Amino acid sequence: MTSILSAIPSLSVLDPEARHVLDLGRQADAPPFEAGTPQQARRAYDEGFPDLQGEREPVASVSERTIAGPGGPLTLRIYRGQGAHDADTPALLYLHGGGWVIGNLDSHDEICRWFANMAASVVVSPAYRLAPEHKFPAAVEDCLAVLSFMRDAAGELGIETRRIAVAGDSAGGNLATVLSLLARGDRVRLTAQLLFYPNTDAAQTADSYRRFGEGFGLTASTMAWFRDHYIRNVSDIDDWRASPLKAESLAGAPPAFIALAGHDVLADEGEAYAGRLEEDGVPLVLRRWPGQIHGFVSMGRHGPAARQAVAAAVAAWRGFDPAFGKA
């Protein structure tokens, strides 16, 4: 496996769409999230993400429902893709990014729609509890509860319990990796983990925090702000449920697809996690977008890379499961 260090592009090959998004950010001249409160960050994020999102394409159906969660009611958005079977269809639990502090069902709606249609599947996306109001491991507990619901309600949802995968981006990718490890002992295992630039090490000491810590969208200081709102105390940094890279073994985890952005503070820890998976014998598809920045899968309005990454994830998912999509 090629090290990210040997694959780092020069700044001259930053993709035009990534450069354009960075230019838009500089023109907006908005204060960084860490300059305000979590509530202010959420408002700013909610105002800004519609200008980045790709097309919210039609799906066969979208519905919302509330289930009982470990900390109270949990809202889920459920997508049935075009071409999905009425029963025994593949299903995906999609966990949105946002540093465990921001993000919601709307901020990643287009990605869920793409997954639903490209895979002719059912996608379930939860509004898991956010920090700092609900610190680690509240989000992990919520995601486990949603996975349990999907299995228990498989007949009602029209999904096949043996065809459930998990996916997520950034902090959602962190939660997806943790869920994948926690589910290793389950009688019915996950079929895949589909990860976009996942956060895997809360220590935040990788060299990419130095190389791309400023000027590429997500900064090192913003990442520290997110992390410090999420964890209860410094000892949580070494808890593998916050830092899956620190897990003693990754053996037995479901097959993994990982998409990495070259100009990203999380690049090295994503690369390191891919290396650990490979060492522990977990089937792996690793794709790099060298000229992209963190969050590019949520920037579909400004170029094709977002949809391309989701299409690559779906192709990997199909490849991991020979019975994928067969009624």
UniProtKB/TrEMBL annotation:
Active site: 170
GO molecular function, one term: hydrolase activity
InterPro entries found in the cross-reference section: AB_hydrolase_3 (IPR013094), AB_hydrolase_fold (IPR029058), GDXG_lipolytic_enzyme (IPR050300), Lipase_GDXG_HIS_AS (IPR002168), Lipase_GDXG_put_SER_AS (IPR033140)
Keyword entries, A-Z: Hydrolase
Keyword Transit peptide carried by entry: no
Domain Alpha/beta hydrolase fold-3: 92-297
Family per similarity comment: Belongs to the 'GDXG' lipolytic enzyme family.
Protein name: Lipase protein
